[in-house]
Amino acid sequence: MPEISRRAVLSGAVLASGLAAGAGVGLLRPVQHKVATPPAPPPAALTQALSANRTLLAGYDRVPGAPAGLRSDVVAHGQALQALLEFYPGWRWAGSGSSAAASSSSSPAGGTSAAQGRPAADVPDSIAGLAAGSTRLARTLAAAAVGWPADEAQAVHVVPVLASISASLSTHAAVLT
Amino acid sequence: MTAPDSSGPSSTAGGADPNGAAQPVVAALQQVLLAHHAAVFGYPALGVHLDQDAEIAHARADEAAHRLSRDAIIDQLLALGATADAAQADYAPPAPLTTASAARGWALELEERTAAGYRFLLLAGVQAGGSQQPIRTQAMTGLTGAAGTALYWRRLLHPQRPTVPFPGT
């Protein structure tokens, strides 16, 4: 029978106790898995603007004799607003059916959410209604363009577009009135 | 007729900024000023080619509005410690000025240029950061006003398509 030295016994004991301590810590310590957090929702001012844009567009489709040129402007406005929303990863997240939606807490302009910019119920049904809707949205967007926080990540992209859409809608109101 | 910046730019100057944050705003105000200089030159030149009384009256009112805005922006630049750029000796119309239609086209171009200047000012207000709300309000008012005036001339030139989706671009 081979002779076992005292050094070998001690080394083995140290190794065994180290392994036991490590296993104990590993078993007792709470495991922290990385949890996927949803991306921040887009500013509510943008989703609300898209919602109002779609309401206006629905009005153009509803009102007989509504100027086609103005309608095509409104279509372009909607595309531009959607392009702005693409800057915010939370926009796609909200669109995927999760519970995440635009929140007023993250909104530079405040207000309630309008997830995915669905048209509201009050679709204009007359030329006067289209004019009023254009004026209302123009004012809202002008206020957003002026008040948008300069340090917001996408401000340099968002503000000029909101301003141009607002100015365009002001001319729409003049044409429709 | 809407004055491009009826809110009174001189009353909305952000004040001298020792940190240089106003530099983008000063540069943008110079752009707006150049647009007003061109309009103050252009309207009298194009006005003699217009043949409708209403259009002539509109052109005169537009010129007066641009003149007021020009003077106010010069004051605003001085208040910011900058020197206002001088007008050029001459401004060329986009097309030979031989007909009323060409005159209307130039008027439209002048207003579109003004709208672009104010849109640039709005962006500069954002880029300058901090509290530039008065500048941004001034820019928004100017952009909307120029878009409205452009509508008048575009309606005469293109009655079927009198608006654009993104004024100032």
Structure description:
The complex is a heterodimer of chains A (about 180) and B (about 170). Chain A is built from 6 helices and no strands. Chain A has helices at about 5-30, 45-60, 70-85, 90-95, 125-145, 155-175. Chain B has about 170 residues and is mainly alpha-helical. Chain B has helices at about 25-45, 55-80, 100-125, 135-155. In chain B, α1 (about 25-45) packs antiparallel against α2 (about 55-80), α1 runs antiparallel to α3 (about 100-125) and α3 (about 100-125) runs antiparallel to α4. The two termini of chain B are about 20 Å apart. The model of chain B is unreliable at about 1-20 (pLDDT under 50). The interface of A and B includes residues 76 and 145 of A.
- For this structure, the quaternary state is heterodimer
Percent in helix of chain A: 55-70%
**Global Rg of chain A:** 29 Å
Detail the poorly predicted runs of chain B: 1-19
The 3D shape of chain A can be described as rod-shaped
* pLDDT averaged over residues of chain A: 85
SSE arrangement of chain A, N to C:
HHHHHH
The chain-level structural class of chain A is: mainly alpha
Give the C-alpha Rg of chain B: 16 Å
**Helix segment tally of chain A:** 6
Count of extended strands of chain A: 0
Q: Report the β-strand fraction of chain A as a percent range.
A: under 5%
**Biggest sheet descriptor of chain B:** none
Quote the distance from N terminus to C terminus of chain B: 22 Å
Order of helices and strands of chain B: HHHH
Please work out how many helical segments of chain B DSSP would assign: 4
